[in-house]
Structure formats: C-alpha cells, structure tokens
C-alpha cells in the first residue's frame, strides 16, 4: 500500500477499507463516479473509431473511470491506467487527479518523475496525432499546441501535488515535534513534583529532628531538676528554690527556641498555601525554609561550655576536654550546629539512661576536621531512674546529621558497661 500522506497510519482508523476518515472515502467515490461518467461519454466516440459496439465502449469507459477510487491505495496503478487509455482520448479527470495524488504521496521521486514524463509524452503524441490531420493547420502550430496541452495537463497537477505533500509532511513534522515537547514538559513537571515531594519529606524530617533536639534536652533537664526539687523541698528549701529557678530557666529557653522555629514555619506558610503553586515554586518554598534554618542563628561550639554547665547543674558529673590549636577557630555554621546537637543529644541520652554516671565530653580540633566523643560510665546501682520517655530517635537523628555532612558516626556500648558516641566531621576553618 502507498499512502498519500494525509491518510497515513493505521491508528485511529475511522473510514472503511484503506481510508482513514469517512470524508476521504466519500471524496474518492465521488471523484470516481464523475470520472466514470466522463469516460463513459468519451467511450462512445472511442467505440465508433475502434469499430466496437457502443455499449462495449461505454462499459469500458465506466471501468476505466472508476479506477480513480483506488488513487489513495495504488496511485501508481491509477496513473498507468490513465497513460494506457490516453490514445483513446478519455480519462481527463483520471489523469489529472492521478498525477496529483502520485506527486503528493510518498512514493520515490524517481518513480514520480518517470511516470510524469510518460504521461507528458503520451499526451503530446496523442495531441500531435489528432491535430495533424486538421486541414489548414501549420506544422509549427500543431507542435506548439500539442506541447501546450501536454504541459497544461501534466505539470500543474504534479507541482500542486508536490507542494501539498511537502506542506503536509512539514505540518506532521511540526505536530510530532510539538507532541515531543509536550511529553518532555510533562516529564519535567513530574520530575519537579518528585523533587518537591522529596524536599518536603526532607524538611519534615529536619523539622522533626530539630524539635526533638530542642525539646528532648530541655525537658529532660527540667524533669531531672523537678525530681531533685521534689527530693530536697522539705530538707533544703534554699536548694529547692535554686532548682526551681533552674527549671524555670530551662522552660523559658525551650519556649524561646520553639518560638524561633515556629516563626520560621509561619514565614513560609503563605507560599505553601497559595493556590495552584507550580512544582518549581514548591521546591523554592521548601528550599527557602531549609535556608531559614541553616542561615538563622543557631548553636555553635562556643556554647558547649554552657551546655555542659547545664548538665552539671542537674547533678551530672561531666568533664569537658577540648584539644587542638584550632579551639577558637570558626567553622561553617552547619558544622558547628551539627557538633553542638550531637553533644546535646548524647548528654540527653546520658540523663535518660545513665543517671549518676560519670560523663566525659571530648572535642578535638584537627587539620580539616573536628572530632567529638561523649562517653559515660555505668549507671550506679543505687541511683533512681528519672523515668524519662524515649522515642528511640536520638541516635538516628545524630547519624542523619553527621552523614549529611559526609562525616563518620560510631556508637555503641563500652567494655566497662557504659556507652560511647564518636563523631568526626570534615570542615575547613574560615579564612584558611
């Protein structure tokens, strides 16, 4: 099957047989009917010239003209039929429409050129032979007239078919390109939505980790001080007052940090609630939220002494050992915050699981990295457990923080019955 370009492809076929659409079938049947009537009329003089009965000539013309219905299926055959019946002076519409269809379809151009040349030559010869017998007509006039008619019947339909075919192929190419771009845009939108969902998940995890670090440590110290307050309230009122003041300070610090975090969330609330937010806008919103946490004021290594002092005030025996020439150097904010949070969470775990145990916090500044270790000894047998709840997320959060910066995290029990958390964070001091 040879397609004309306008009826290509089998997908979505709605017309009968080889037609893509019903209107194509109606058009071809109508053209074939007109061509059959024309050839039947022209078959009468053909029958007289050939010495055949008129009904035979009419029937022959009907058969020849009706072959035009096959022009989309077999355009080459239709053109060959038109060339074959040209000596009988019939098939004007058949020849013109056949050449147009041949030029518009996707047959090789050499075949189109060959059949066009044959049709031109056949028309030229037939016209020359039929006009030569006219008396009074000069030879030059006969030749000019024959050439003019032959060119007029073959060249315009071929040129029109070439133009329509090229235009149709261009439109199909543009449509394919548009479909391809639409698919690419849809794919990019899906990927952007996936990235936005991933960013939202990461930010939810980060917020949960921050809330855990802030609340767990402060509240754990408050519970320890509250237990001490309950124990000494009747025996040592002065110490009870001191512990109550510490509990109040811890509560105020926790509330301050929680307000800061909630303020960041409220600042990013409006873009998130905006209707019809594009995936890229969602990514930008979450990125802004992450940046607000990272760029805002946060804990640093310089506050470790105060952090350890809070644990000492709660009755824990904590030793801080800082080593390295870079003890006063400033590191990237995310490194200092991670180091602080790791020590904070490790001390919180000591309050929960090892009350009364001796704790050693080691901090070492090295070339290109900072290392820290929090180790506690075994819990005393006579120490009353404070009954602090544990969600089991402390070590997981520490590991996520450290691995997120490309560091090393190791934790586990010691041979003496205690527990050790060791962390190494890669960093470059500012100004180095």
Quick rundown:
It is an enzyme of class 2 (transferase). The chain is 64% helix and 9% strand.
3D architecture notes:
- Among the domains are: 22-137, no CATH class; 299-432, Histidine kinase-like ATPase, C-terminal domain (Heat Shock Protein 90).
- 64% of the residues lie in helices and 9% in strands.
- The protein contains twelve helices and five strands.
- It has helices at 22-50, 54-66, 75-84, 92-104, 109-132, 139-232, 237-267, 269-273, 279-295, 304-313, 333-353, 394-404, and strands spanning 317-323, 358-366, 369-376, 408-413, 419-426.
- A hairpin with a 2-residue loop joins strand 2 (358-366) and strand 3.
- The two termini are 76 Å apart.
- Keywords: ATP-binding, Coiled coil, Kinase, Membrane, Nucleotide-binding, Phosphoprotein, Transferase, Transmembrane, Transmembrane helix, Two-component regulatory system.
- Residues 203-268 form the Signal transduction histidine kinase subgroup 3 dimerisation and phosphoacceptor domain.
- It is an enzyme of class 2 (transferase).
- This is histidine kinase.
């Amino acid at each position: 099957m040879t397609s004309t370009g306008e009826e290509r492809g089998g997908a979505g076929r709605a017309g009968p047989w080889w037609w893509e659409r019903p209107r194509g079938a109606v058009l071809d049947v109508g053209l074939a009917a007109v061509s059959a009537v024309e050839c039947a009329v022209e078959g009468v003089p053909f029958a007289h010239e050939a010495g055949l009965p008129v009904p035979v000539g009419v029937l022959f013309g009907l058969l020849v003209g009706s072959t035009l219905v096959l022009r989309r299926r077999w355009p080459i055959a239709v053109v060959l039929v038109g060339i074959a019946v040209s000596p009988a002076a019939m098939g004007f519409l058949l020849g013109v429409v056949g050449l147009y269809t041949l030029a518009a379809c996707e047959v090789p151009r050499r075949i189109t050129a060959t059949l066009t040349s044959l049709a031109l030559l056949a028309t030229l010869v037939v016209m020359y032979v039929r006009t030569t017998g006219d008396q009074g007509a000069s030879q030059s006039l006969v030749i000019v007239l024959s050439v003019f008619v032959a060119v007029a019947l073959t060249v315009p339909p071929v040129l029109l078919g070439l133009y329509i075919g090229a235009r149709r192929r261009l439109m199909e190419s543009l449509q394919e390109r548009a479909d391809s771009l639409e698919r690419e845009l849809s794919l990019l939108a899906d990927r952007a939505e996936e990235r936005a969902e991933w960013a939202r998940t990461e930010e939810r995890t980060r917020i949960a980790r921050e809330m855990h670090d802030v609340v767990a440590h402060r509240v754990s110290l408050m519970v320890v001080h509250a237990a001490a307050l309950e124990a000494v309230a009747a025996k040592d009122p002065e110490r009870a007052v001191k512990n109550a003041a510490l509990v109040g300070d811890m509560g105020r610090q926790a509330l301050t940090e929680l307000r800061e975090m909630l303020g960041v969330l409220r600042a990013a609330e409006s873009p998130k609630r905006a209707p019809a937010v594009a995936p890229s806008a969602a990514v930008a919103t979450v990125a802004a939220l992450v940046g607000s946490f990272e760029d805002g004021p946060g804990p640093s290594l310089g506050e470790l002494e105060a952090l350890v002092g809070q644990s000492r005030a709660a009755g824990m025996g904590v030793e801080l050992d800082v080593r390295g020439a870079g003890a006063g150097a400033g590191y990237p904010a995310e490194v200092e915050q991670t180091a602080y949070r790791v020590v904070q969470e490790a001390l919180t775990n000591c309050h929960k699981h090892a009350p009364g145990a001796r704790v050693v916090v080691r901090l070492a500044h090295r070339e290109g990295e900072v290392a820290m270790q929090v180790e506690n000894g075994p819990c005393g047998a006579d120490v009353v457990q404070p009954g602090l709840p544990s969600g089991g997320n402390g070590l997981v959060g520490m590991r996520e923080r450290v691995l997120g910066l490309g560091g090393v995290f190791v934790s586990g029990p010691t041979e003496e019955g205690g527990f050790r958390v060791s962390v190494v964070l890669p960093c470059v001091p500012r100004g180095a």
